[in-house]
Each structure stands twice: as C-alpha cells, then as structure tokens.
Amino acid sequence: MTVKECYEQMGADYEGVLGRLRSEALIKKFAKKFLDDGSFQSLKDNLAQKNGEEAFRAAHTLKGVCQNLGFDNLYKASFDIIISRHIAVLKCSFTKAP
Q: If the chain, 98 residues long, is cut into consecutive pieces of 10 residues, what is the mean pLDDT of each piece?
C-alpha cells in the first residue's frame, strides 16, 4: 500500500499534507513518528485521572500534530475536546462573575 492509499483509507488529507511537506518521503517519515507520539496516551491517562489541565495539553498537542499530518478525523476529535474545555471554562467564569 502506498502512503497516498493509506491516507485515502484513513480519510486523511494526503494532498494537503503533500502541499505542506512537499515530499512523500517526509510524509511517510512523520506519519511513522506519529505512532511513537505520546499525546494520545497522555490524553487517555489524564482523562482517566481527571487531570483536566494535562488532558487539555495532550489534546492540544494531538490536534496540532494531526492537523500538520492531515489526519482530519483525529484532528476534528481533538479539536472538539479543546472546544469543550474552553466552553466549560467560560461557563465557569460566567457563573463566578458578580
């Protein structure tokens, strides 16, 4: 399977990432490094431990990596986590306002 075929199967944005990285070899290199990235595991662990700050940090890192690699589905999921936290913080600050 080629890198492009893999991206197509994942529903990822191969053309977008190719436009950014300019080389299939670089896409392959960084996609492989993604497998060793600890952001997803950190997100899971910190959610389980109810550590909101670290879970947010991991989700934010994951979002950036996924966006750069064109992993649109995972990017959208991590983006939703970040937006949910921002909404929760805003709600909390509004309820504390005099």
A: 93 95 94 91 89 85 90 77 64 59
Residue 49, token pair as written in the block? 């431990």
Tokens of 31: 């996609």
Stated pTM of the model = 0.71
Task: Give the distance, in angstroms, between the CA of residue 28 and the centroid of all CA atoms in the same chain.
Answer: 18
Q: Which of 31, 53, 32 is nearest to 42 (CA)?
A: 53
- Please give the structure tokens belonging to residue 73: 């589905």
- The confidence score (pLDDT) of residue 71 equals 92
DSSP assignment of 59-92 equals HHHHHHHHHHHT-HHHHHHHHHHHHHHHHHHHHH
3-state secondary structure of 41: helix
